[in-house]
Protein: Methyltransferase
Amino acid sequence: MAREHGGGPKIHQWDSTRNRLTWILGISGLCVLFYVLGAWQNTAAIPKSSSNLSNSGAQCGNPSNTLSSNSLDFETHHGVNINDTFPSAKRFPACPMNFSEYTPCQDQRRGRRFDRGMLVYRERHCPEKDELIRCLIPAPPKYKTPFKWPQSRDYAWYDNIPHKELSIEKAVQNWIQVEGDRFRFPGGGTMFPRGADAYIDDINALIPLTDGSIRTAVDTGCGVASWGAYLLKRNILTMSFAPRDTHEAQVQFALERGVPAMIGVIGSQRMPYPARAFDMAHCSRCLIPWFANDGLYLIEVDRVLRPGGYWILSGPPINWKKHYRGWERTQDDLKQEQDSIEKVAERLCWKKVIEKDDLAVWQKPLNHIECIENRKIYRTPHICKDDNGDAAWYKKLEVCITPLPEASKTEEVAGGQLEKWPERAFAVPPRISRGTITGITTEKFLDDNKLWKDRVTHYKHIIPPLTKGRFRNVMDMNAKLGGFAAALTKYPVWVMNVVPANSEIDTLGVIYERGFIGTYQDWCEAFSTYPRTYDLIHADGVFSIYQDRCDITYILLEMDRILRPEGTVIFRDTVDVLVNIQKIAEGMKWNCRIMDHESGPFNPEKILFAVKSYWTGEPAEQ
Structure:
């Protein structure tokens, strides 16, 4: 009898295996299908034609965190009622009305505790922990949304900054005038009675202002920043600064006009800007004693000027033979002051370009090759031994010249030649191409540009007013390489790029090389500005940096202080950080929504969009 083979059982075994595989594949397919459907349901399309958010996500003021009919409104309404939709939140009370213009680190009462020498009492002196306030700074009772740019350059509402002092004190000089319910800014200044426009034309006749080689400027003692305001149409971005002094609210007026400005003073500390930041520096009767303390203040201007940069001086002592009677000073006194300034400039290796009428212009050398040789003749000021010229956060001034990067030829620009504006915004900055920024390569810079172009495109879909002139003053609290500011260059905004003072990598010099402006800042302290001065604040990873360093409640209260009513904030961070922010924001009269990352729901980073409600303080009782 023939032997039977074992083929039958093997066939049954194969069928069983095939059935199991079919079940496994079927179940796996169903899992994938339901996962995709769930993800699709949680990422509804963003409406591109509406200013209201209707995406699913966690809402401030909605404890259940479910989809609500409430939506974010990015438009302004001048005087809507407080949106009372936060019943479960721990409310922050409104501060008394005498805090309406509170500047924590430039509080004049606190400043009286400090030495008046070298204007120390007008420098930053921030409150101690027991002096911090946990209340919301109120807007004036009749606060209105500021005029849109460019009309804001010339007009501001009186109710927003109810101070007439400058219109009286500076009436002859045409700084500011009161016209009914508004201020008008004629563009005048102490040394340009014909207006800032004509004054800038006079400067342009001496040095090139319109060929793109000059992009960043600093105005020391800026008044209401008319010089910076009129430079904007020449594509020059000016960091204007002035102290909080007897000229009440001058920096507040500048920001209300939509012009970059900060509260600041050249006193005993460095300005909070990196070395080689500005293409041009300006002083128009700014009353800074440039020759005093062995030329200490002019040495600081030298630090922040780029190689080949210009310093422009008008007012005392320039053209003293004509003006000495009006200045109520003797000819000998003024001549001695000018001679002293000339000597300091010469020791800094500056070249005097020209003196014509009320203007004098000096130029910083392209490099220090000849200047080092000159130290054999001029023993002081010496070249600083500490070569970190960018260190500028609470850094004391020194009577020494900040060294420039090495150069091999006298015509070589120390640190590298910059492109002209506007190419400069996207060209690789020399600090990166030369490898002086640790971990940042040309490829990373180019990738960062593309990243922020895509992100701003995403923001536009969510916040349509971003492209329609709704926002003017923008702050980036953690600017990194300045990619956010670069992506906004085609819109009518300017960006205050902030690099946290404790950052592992200092990139503020890169931002200036791109033709943008910014400052160092420790966000455990208040910013050097008045309340209600920014329309849009961008906070990328800020709270992950600071959550273990200080109470983030105070950072959010500071953001509320500097944000205008109905202003917008964009947070980018991890979910747990954003949830903590959301809990605090519920009590600050903010409407907000946590949304997925622009790349989709699988990215652990999320975005929180918030809008500050409109509310004002109560008028004082008669």
Notes: The longest strand covers residues 563-574. The CA atoms of residues 207 and 351 lie 13 Å apart. Confidence is low (pLDDT under 50) at residues 1-14, 39-57, 62-70, 79-88.
